[in-house]
Amino acid sequence: MRRPSCLLTFATLAIGCVVSQAAHSATPEQQSSRPNIVLILCDDLGYADVGFNGSTDIQTPNLDRLASNGMKFTSAYVTHPFCGPSRMGLMSGRYPHKFGAPFNLPNSGLGIEQYNRQGVPIDQKLISSVLQDSGYFTGAIGKWHLGIDADYHPNQRGFDDFYGFLGGGHMYFTDRSRGIYERQVKAGKANFNEYIVPLQHNGTDVDETEYLTDGLSREAVRFIDQASAGEQPFFLYLAYNAPHTPLEAKQSDLERFADIDDEKRRAYAAMVYAVDRGVGRVVQSLKKAGAMDNTLVIFLSDNGGKIGAGSNNAPLSQGKGSVSEGGFRVPMFFHWPTEISAGKTFDHPVTTLDFYPTLARLAGATIPRETQCDGKDIWDSIGSNQNPRQDESIYALRHWNGFHNVGVRRNQWKITKQGPSSPWKLFDLDRDISESNDVSASHPELVRTMVDDARKWSESHTQPLWFDNLKAEQNWKSNGMPIYQSTFAVE
After folding, report:
1. What is the pLDDT of residue 32?
2. What is the pLDDT of residues 195-224, one digit of tens each?
3. Which of 209, 239, 247, 459 has its CA 20 to 30 A from that of 445?
4. Among 252, 364, 345, 343, which Cα is nearest to 26's?
5. Edge-to-edge, what's the strand order for the sheet holding 403-410?
6. Rounded distance, CA 221 to CA 215, Å?
7. Residue 445 gets which letter from DSSP?
8. Residue 220: exposure state from Cβ atoms within 10 A (0-12, 13-18, ≥19)
9. What whole-number distance in Å separates Cα of residue 105 and Cα of residue 465?
């Protein structure tokens, strides 16, 4: 991997990101060499549901080609095993627990107005705004799930162009969702399930006519064509909602997977294939514009695949919602022809928190000094194949049913606690990726050290600003949450 001439020196400290001011003095030649960035995010994609990560029954030729010509990350983590907090962590560069966002925002159809007015706090500057301020033309296509109120709209959070839906999901056949929505409007309904509301383009409702995944791919191509015609580098955040439920696939795609007997798996496979088709269209548009060589393409999932909804997280344990590996360890690759050699694999642990400082560096952007970053600039570590956080931890914590499920990754080690009666368990992921052999009895001091590290991390958490439903809020209050003292006790 070569080091681009525009790269800056960053120091990531415990108190936040301290950024070199060199971005302001970059020459016009250096600024023009800044890469385009295309960040493609799937929703609930299983660890083993793409060819480059071992799938044998789902064909993903376009993704596999990009992965084989770039760098695959085998230990990539997101910030939470659920959609909303995971995306909020990615975009903010901070653990969502630190700014009151450890729960999904509730479906707007529930009519919980106090939470419908919430979103990622305005004082959390998103990476989109950092890139926009540095001169990037920015676009968000697809699922948002960071707030539906006007203050939290993508166009107010660093995106010049937005096409998609603001909530946590949507039906895929828009002719069906449109019919349901129109009937409910005529019936005088006040609150609408966000899965049926019209898509929008920059705040204006649009009449989408294609299968949703294909429509989002079309809009991604439109954005690239528009951006490539200008002088600015561009940042595209392409956030597919596939293969998140409802499991709805085109008949032609279903027929391609007719040999899969399980109906859920067949529909799921067809939905993943539609994403792959869309990524192929994105690649072709980049090539047509002559932008492929200077574009960093990142692909990953927002969390693990949902067990029971067609996914396969093998060889990882459990899935979406879990702090086991299958919940927040995801398939991921980087592709950048002029900077990343083909066929590379990076096995050290990284996290989506790292996107914020790393992308800012590559873009020659300045992160505000007051910004608190939990991620690290990993670009040099990628180039030297070194662990960017030797002896440092990556955390996952889910508030669940009156308790806190916790997972912590450090080097090859992983500790978990899942449930109030469960002991802390330790796994050597280099030898036991499936977390099937608890070795805590052989390494008691390591367990104590990692648990104490997680306890100290939890001290930075704030009270949730919202809950995904009123029952969860009642549960939180009745159980006196958080109850970290008992969670982080070691016998």
Report:
1. 57
2. 999 999 999 999 999 999 999 999 999 999
3. 459
4. 364
5. 393-400, 403-410, 413-417, 425-428
6. 10
7. H
8. buried
9. 10
CA distance 354 to 78: 10
Calpha distance 411→468 (Å, rounded):
33
How is 243-267 classified by DSSP, letter by letter?
A: TSSS----HHHHHHTTT--SHHHHH
Please check the confidence at residue 16 and state whether its pLDDT lies above 60.
no
Please check the confidence at residue 28 and state whether its pLDDT lies above 80: no
- 222: which 2 tokens? 């439109």
Q: Does 22 have pLDDT greater than 90?
A: no
Q: Is there a contact between 268 and 310 (Cβ–Cβ < 8 Å)?
A: yes
Stated as kind and residue range, the H or E segment containing 350 is: strand 350-351
Q: What kind and span of H or E run contains 214?
A: helix 212-228
Close Cβ partners of 132 (under 8 Å, ≥ 6 residues apart): 138, 158, 159, 160, 235
What are the two backbone dihedrals, phi and then psi, of residue 434, each rounded to the nearest 5 degrees?
A: -85, 0
**How does residue 5 score in pLDDT terms, banded at 50, 70 and 90?**
very low
pLDDT tens digits, residue range 312-338?
999 999 999 999 999 999 999 999 999
Instruction: Give first-to-last CA distance, the chain, whole Å.
Output: 47
State the burial class of residue 264 (Cβ atoms within 10 Å of its Cβ: 0-12, 13-18, 19+). middle
Half-sphere exposure of 263 (CA within 13 A, CB side): 3
A 10 A CB-CB count for 158 gives 21
**8 A C-beta contact, residue 417 and residue 406:** yes
- Smallest CA-to-CA distance from 334 within 90, 87, 67 is with 67
Dihedral of alpha carbons 161, 69, 10, 347, sign: positive
d(CA 166, CA 169): 8
- Contact (Cβ atoms closer than 8 angstroms) between residue 413 and residue 430: no
Structural contact between residues 13 and 377, judged by C-beta atoms closer than 8 angstroms = no
- Comparing C-alpha atoms, which of 126, 234, 215, 127 is closest to residue 177? 215
Largest CA distance in the chain: 66
Whether the pTM exceeds 0.70: the reply is yes
Encoded tokens for 367? 């992160």
DSSP assigned state of 313 = -
User: What is the C-alpha to C-alpha distance for residues 461 and 212, in angstroms, rounded to an integer?
Assistant: 37
Amino acid present at 48: A
Question: Which 3 state secondary structure label does DSSP give 62?
Answer: helix
Q: Can you tell me the distance from the alpha carbon of 424 to that of 408, in angstroms, rounded to the nearest whole number?
A: 11
